[in-house]
UniProtKB/TrEMBL annotation:
This is Membrane protein. Keywords: Membrane, Transmembrane, Transmembrane helix. Residues 118-137 are annotated as: Disordered. It comes from the Bacteria. Pfam families: Anthrone_oxy. InterPro entries: Anthrone_oxy. The chain crosses the membrane at residues 6-31, 52-75, 87-109.
């Protein structure tokens, strides 16, 4: 039971940490870098990123922490690591907050941006084929996307980072709970 508790907390902490790192990297590097781009480049780059990120390397650490945190809470409630339970629950709430921001704000913004036409030509633009015909569309799409996306990305980055910190503390407490009366073994 103790080994399962430790493994569950450890893997959940790693997953939460990966998401905290990803979303904070967008906050301090990716989006400030894209801010320097013209509208067409910005829209196309975000579309490419949003399409590429939906893969197992992202989805596993994004989705797995939720059931692992629930399992960790159940195991802590019924096991020797009960001292960590409030921290595990706090991490779950923080992680879910960031998760809900992703699903409720960032993904819908990504989906709306994905529908903006960026290909040149009369069929794509419904106009003369002149790229200037759509420069206003790209600017409007970016204006409706960038500020909100960046703000809400920061919210989820902070939520996931806080969840990571709280979960690291829970893992520490779980480890110290195993040392009492066991001769120091964890």
């Amino acid at each position: 039971m103790r080994a399962l508790q430790t493994a569950t907390l450890l893997v959940a902490t790693l997953g939460v940490g990966l998401m905290a790192g990803l979303f904070t990297a967008f906050a301090y590097a990716v989006m400030p870098g894209l801010r320097r781009s013209d509208d067409r480049t910005f829209v196309q780059a975000m579309r490419n990123i949003n399409r590429a990120i939906v893969n197992g390397w992202f989805l596993l650490p994004f989705l797995l922490p939720i059931p692992l945190l629930v399992l960790a809470a159940i195991l802590a409630r019924n096991g020797p690591g009960r001292i960590a339970l409030p921290w595990i629950l706090a991490a779950l709430v923080l992680y879910l907050a960031g998760f809900l921001v992703t699903g409720g704000v960032n993904v819908p913004l990504n989906n709306a941006l994905d529908k903006v036409p960026t290909n040149e030509g009369p069929a794509a633009s419904g106009g003369s084929g002149d790229p200037a015909d759509r420069s206003g569309d790209l600017q409007a799409a970016r204006d409706g996307f960038e500020g909100r996306w960046v703000t809400w990305n920061l919210v989820r980055a902070l939520a996931h980072t806080a969840a990571f910190g709280v979960l690291a503390w829970a893992l520490f407490l779980h480890g110290t709970a195993g040392t009492a009366g066991t001769g120091g073994s964890v």
